[in-house]
Specification:
The complex is a heterodimer of chains A (228) and B (363). With 228 residues, chain A is mainly alpha-helical. Chain A is 79% helix and 0% strand. The longest helix of chain B has 18 residues. Classes of the chains: A mainly alpha (228), B alpha+beta (363). Chains A and B meet through helix 6 and helix 7 of A and strand 7 of B.
């Protein structure tokens, strides 16, 4: 049986959301992880706790606060309306913001760990060879943590695909706009369309397994392993 | 052109500070010598810009301010080559990749090109190797090559031979001497091994607990009784000699030391060449009259210039021979029996086997 339009929309939307989120996460998470890896102290611990809190908080809690933050009556909601002319709540943009916050630890933590494993002496050697800090990051830090970038990106992507609670709270269930796969599955089950539910659920299981398999293969076969 | 002038005040912990001011020549090899914990590496780090001394410190190299008042030139703009004790090759790059990394970032024209350096350090067979699979000696040679290809104006070496076995260390020493001869690159060489230092250095600074305790030419410093150098177990005098002739029959070479003959095992160099010899204090003894039936060949007429008691049982003698000096370590009892006095004219017996030659012999 071919996939229905609603299902195709949900698949497309999910992939788009996960892709946009992953790109933003890598752009935001890399400098944040670098900053965290080079410093210590209570300020750093505070920020680490903030980054990690989505790991243990029920997604509905996060979703609830974001819903209030995104409401048309809130400061952010009004600013967004003034900026773009459209509402923030129940929009794709709201899903992206929610997903970025929700998946942040999955990107920041592996990167931070990788950056911390890079011996400071390597960067000193690069500096004495004429590499500026930016050059040191590009030519030493990034290649030495390539594996962790792959893992961080994959985990951020996969975790966004698997998101449910936050999306339900802030995105609602608008087909083609905010109805991602996990919500479409929930919908199918609610309306007792079990054949459709099986397809969606089975597809997600296969996708997740395949992605994790790839991550673990990268880990095994990386040409260079950090010696600690 | 002035050399490297330093006025450094650097505090790491409350219990350690590096405080020194000195002027070093910007030519030849200057050894930084001291026990571990004396601040040798910290000094190199300050010169390279990897550590920032307190404000008020200043570092000038050939008239250029690397640090002064508000000026602090970052390490990537100083063009100092740094060979670390642990090589620090980039593990994600091959040997060639490591060398290219340095060459691409060179800030001037390197006095050494890739071909010359790979030849000098015998790196050709290693170029495609993964740098993490090299032996310690190979890694150190690659690290030296990498630093050279970056066109440094000053080469800093932090105990580059500390992790090598004796044979590899001797080989590396020989490379460094060739480098100095062929590239005319000033070097600052940190070491706690006096034999290494005496083979390489022209100039010496002595550090103790973060302070400068001596500075000068190697020949002069190593026989001064007021420095730590002459009090060590391996204390030795370094003497400048000239090769006079070869004795093929007995396999010996005769050197001229201040007009006196000195026999050493056969050397390959031609007569007329200058050589430095190292004469350990423990291998020198003295007598009042020239012995005529001794197995020791080298007997030099000297004048006793200084006596220092180093322990309850032993004394250290400084003996002058022309403008140069020897050290002799003898027992207090012998000195008492011979009634030694400063100014006495004596004969120093030097075991010829004790003469250590420079590493160029191995090249």
């Amino acid at each position: 049986m071919p996939l229905s339009n609603t299902e195709l929309d949900a698949i497309y939307l999910t992939l788009a959301l996960a892709s946009v989120t992953t790109v933003i996460l890598l752009l935001l998470g890399t400098p944040l992880a670098w900053w965290l890896s080079r410093r210590s102290g209570s300020k750093v611990a505070m920020i680490e706790a903030l980054v990690a809190v989505p790991l243990i908080l029920p997604p509905t809690v996060l979703g609830f606060y974001l819903l209030i933050l995104f409401a048309p009556t809130s400061g952010l909601g009004q600013f967004w309306y003034w900026l773009t002319g459209s509402q923030l709540a129940f929009s794709f943009s709201a899903l992206v913001i929610g997903s970025v916050i929700y998946s942040l630890p999955f990107v920041v933590q592996p990167l931070q760990a990788a950056f911390q494993r890079i011996p400071p002496g390597m960067l000193q050697a690069a500096a004495t060879l004429g590499a500026t800090p930016g050059d040191q990051f590009r030519s030493v830090v990034m290649p030495l943590s390539r594996r962790s970038f792959v893992i961080a990106g994959s985990l951020g992507f996969a975790h966004t695909v698997g998101e449910f609670g936050v999306v339900l709270m802030i995105g609602g269930n608008i087909p083609g706009e905010t109805q991602v796969l996990s919500i479409a599955l929930y919908d199918s089950v609610e309306s007792l369309q079990f054949a459709q539910a099986h397809r969606l659920a089975g597809g997600l299981v296969v996708f997740s397994l395949a992605l994790l398999f790839c991550i673990y293969r990268v880990e095994r076969h990386s040409a260079w392993r950090l010696r600690t | 052109m002035s050399g490297l002038s330093l006025d450094i005040d650097y505090r790491v912990q409350p219990d350690f500070a590096l405080q020194l001011a000195c002027e070093l020549p910007a030519q030849g090899i200057t050894a930084v010598y001291g026990a571990s914990g004396s601040g040798k590496t910290t000094l190199l780090d300050c010169i390279a810009g990897l550590r920032r001394p307190e404000s008020g410190s200043s570092i000038h190299y050939r008239g250029e301010a690397w640090q002064q008042h508000n000026v602090f030139i970052p390490p990537w703009q100083r063009a100092t080559g740094y060979v670390f004790q642990d090589a620090r090759l980039f593990p994600h790059l091959s040997v060639k990749g490591n060398l290219d990394y340095a060459q691409h970032r060179a800030q001037g024209k390197s006095s050494a090109n890739l071909q010359q350096v790979t030849e000098l350090l015998e790196l050709q067979p290693l170029l495609s190797r993964n740098s993490a699979t090299l032996s310690a000696g190979q890694q150190q040679r690659v690290a030296i090559a990498r630093a050279l290809l970056n066109a440094p104006r000053l080469l800093l070496l932090d105990e580059p031979l500390a992790n090598l076995d004796h044979a590899a260390a001797q080989q590396c020493l020989a490379y460094l001497q060739r480098l100095e001869n062929e590239l005319q690159l000033p070097m600052l060489y940190v070491s706690h091994d006096i034999e290494e230092v005496s083979q390489l250095a022209d100039h010496l600074i002595l550090l103790d607990q973060g302070h400068l305790v001596g500075q000068g030419s190697l020949l002069e410093l190593c026989t001064r009784l007021d420095t730590r150098l002459s009090h060590e177990e391996q204390a030795a005098a370094i003497a400048q000699c000239t090769i006079t002739r070869h004795d093929a029959e007995f396999g010996l070479t005769e050197l001229d030391l201040e007009g006196q003959p000195l026999l050493v095992s056969h050397l390959s160099q031609a007569p007329g060449q200058a050589r430095r010899v190292r004469i350990p204090a423990r291998d020198v003894s003295v007598c009042r009259a020239r012995p005529t039936d001794s197995s020791i060949l080298n007997i030099l007429p000297v004048t006793l210039t200084e006596i220092e008691q180093t322990s309850n049982a032993r004394l250290l003698l400084r003996l002058s021979l022309g403008s140069q000096h020897l050290l002799a370590r003898i027992t207090r009892k012998s000195a008492h029996q011979l009634q030694l006095q400063v100014g006495d004219r004596l004969f120093a017996q030097v075991k010829s086997a004790a003469l250590l030659m420079e590493a160029t012999d191995h090249v």
